[in-house]
Amino acid sequence: MLPTSSGLFVDPEFPASVSSLICGAGTPLSILCDRITWLRPQEIIASPRLFPLNARDGLGKQGILGDCWFICACSALQKCEKLLRQVFPVGQCLWTDPGYTGKFTCRFWRFGFWVEVTIDDRLPCLGHKLCFSHCQDQGSFWLPLLEKAYAKLHGCYESLWAGQVADALVDLTGGLVERWAFGAGEEHVRREMFNKMLELKERCAMTCSVLHYREGAKELGEFHAFTITDIQNVVAKDGQELLMLRVHNPWGRCCWDGSWSKSGHGWDIFSPKVVSNLQSKMQEGEFWVEKSEFIQDFDELTMAFPVNEKGQILNIWSGLPLISTQEVYGSWVKGQSAGGSRNNVSFPDNPKFWLRVKEQCQVYLTLNQRPLHGTGATQNKDSLYAIGLHVWKVEKRKFNLTKTLSSPPVVGTSSHSYERQFHLYCELSPGYHLLVPSTFLRDTEADFLLRVLSTGHVTLSEIVPPRSMAPASEDVTQRSWDIQTLQGSWKKGKNAGGSRNFPSYHLNPSLPFSVPKECQLVKVTLLQQCQEDKCHAIGFHVYSVSRDKQKSPLSGEPSASCVPHSHSQEVSQVCVLSPGKYLLVPSTYLPEQECGFTVTIATKVDRKPIESQETLGRFLQEVCVITVMK
């Protein structure tokens, strides 16, 4: 006998009330709120179960909520038991279990983490029936429970009204998603796409969408998502082979009125046996369509990447497992690191990352932005920014940043897009690569997650800009500079004092220089005179000289620093310094390391340059910023 509703878990965070249904987005759902009741599964049907005995009976049907995009994405869980158990943790007490409490937990991948969402099993109903999503087998409740948890994650059910299938697939799998638009692309690309669908149909969730109204195909609706449940090469009477796709409409009714409707003339080219075989496998809401008509009447195809038994994501093109996953978080901050697209002179201000590839491998670079608020009906175009990503191969341990970013990237987005996440696919050779994520508009603030998934071993790390480094948007190409060059050396037993971590630091050479009143921008370069493969770790600090002659400048905190020390021939930094007198203290990281060095100090002066503006601009772009690999 099933437990009664008394004494069961009631979720105070997501109550059975109007606040869990709507959030003021103005959808038609608000009209029906007063008629909705909340029932537990055992109050709806005598013998509820979580999953159907036949997987095909678990196909999702859409209710009065416009979340076809989420329902179609849930088909990914039916393709992979490992994913299903990731989203629905095992060991939860069901309705026939003695320990049943009415509590269920689901997991969703959100911005790099699997987030647990706990709900009670009270579900919205109209007339004693589920009014939102349900399974083809109405005695199975995995889908409406998952939908409720997803609604709680987003604040209310109404937040799920309209959305992107790709976003839901990422939330349910934590993996990668491929999207193709049928309006673009060449025939060989489409052929490769359909071949891949045939190969992976048993392992991947595949969906298709209609994004605008079509005359002659109005029965498909507008802004609607469908699930592709099968794809087959079928031989016609004349021996011709046709690619046929079986499509499921989450409305749960047949909406297809084309040549491949149940009584359409398209079936005439097949033998009665073939027709019977194909049509007998259709469930409610399913229809068959031939490839050319499919391309004509649908706008987009979305496919989730398969996962192997170890839980590794597989490259859909090569089948190889993506064995390495690297992640790093970052932000675009106004006035600091929100440089905008490559159209802006401030593009070098954007966050920058090192990707070290240790062996030739296939690489997926994914960029995820954190939406400002909401999803679906509550997420408008202002919630997402147009984002992009570009990659440059760096051949040496030191390189000119401006010159590098002015050259064509190895791979990059063709245009910035208003997407929550996207990926770039490339094959990279061993070495170092510079990654620069960006928003299209400058000074756009947002958080992002950069992920690298690869078939070989790679490392990913952020290039942390020195705190006193001036943004590239300061437009140094419009300035004139005085350059001072000083030479010196660190000698063992005399002035090789090492870094500030050592008591002998004060022994290091101290080089005086001044910043005039008209100047605030100073560029300091330290070059050690050694072979590139025998470099010491070097850096420098800049100290302000006070009028108090009794006080050593080195006893205070530096005004600017170029640390951590770097194993490079040359380190360089643009600093913002107030007018006055300063000491520059170059050092190796460890004491007692001998080496000669050259210091170049460039200070901006208020005079017209002798060169033309164009010539000066080109010169300064080449030496403006030097980035050193850590």
TrEMBL record:
<dbReference type="Pfam" id="PF00648">
    <property type="entry name" value="Peptidase_C2"/>
</dbReference>
<feature type="active site">
    <location>
        <position position="68"/>
    </location>
</feature>
<dbReference type="InterPro" id="IPR022682">
    <property type="entry name" value="Calpain_domain_III"/>
</dbReference>
<dbReference type="GO" id="GO:0004198">
    <property type="term" value="F:calcium-dependent cysteine-type endopeptidase activity"/>
</dbReference>
<feature type="active site">
    <location>
        <position position="249"/>
    </location>
</feature>
<dbReference type="InterPro" id="IPR022684">
    <property type="entry name" value="Calpain_cysteine_protease"/>
</dbReference>
<dbReference type="Pfam" id="PF01067">
    <property type="entry name" value="Calpain_III"/>
</dbReference>
<comment type="similarity">
    <text>Belongs to the peptidase C2 family.</text>
</comment>
<dbReference type="InterPro" id="IPR038765">
    <property type="entry name" value="Papain-like_cys_pep_sf"/>
</dbReference>
<dbReference type="InterPro" id="IPR000169">
    <property type="entry name" value="Pept_cys_AS"/>
</dbReference>
<feature type="domain" description="Calpain catalytic">
    <location>
        <begin position="8"/>
        <end position="303"/>
    </location>
</feature>
<keyword id="KW-0788">Thiol protease</keyword>
<dbReference type="InterPro" id="IPR036213">
    <property type="entry name" value="Calpain_III_sf"/>
</dbReference>
<feature type="active site">
    <location>
        <position position="224"/>
    </location>
</feature>
<dbReference type="InterPro" id="IPR001300">
    <property type="entry name" value="Peptidase_C2_calpain_cat"/>
</dbReference>
<dbReference type="GO" id="GO:0006508">
    <property type="term" value="P:proteolysis"/>
</dbReference>
<dbReference type="InterPro" id="IPR022683">
    <property type="entry name" value="Calpain_III"/>
</dbReference>
<keyword id="KW-0378">Hydrolase</keyword>
<dbReference type="GO" id="GO:0005737">
    <property type="term" value="C:cytoplasm"/>
</dbReference>
<keyword id="KW-0645">Protease</keyword>
<protein>
    <submittedName>
        <fullName>Calpain-10 isoform X1</fullName>
    </submittedName>
</protein>
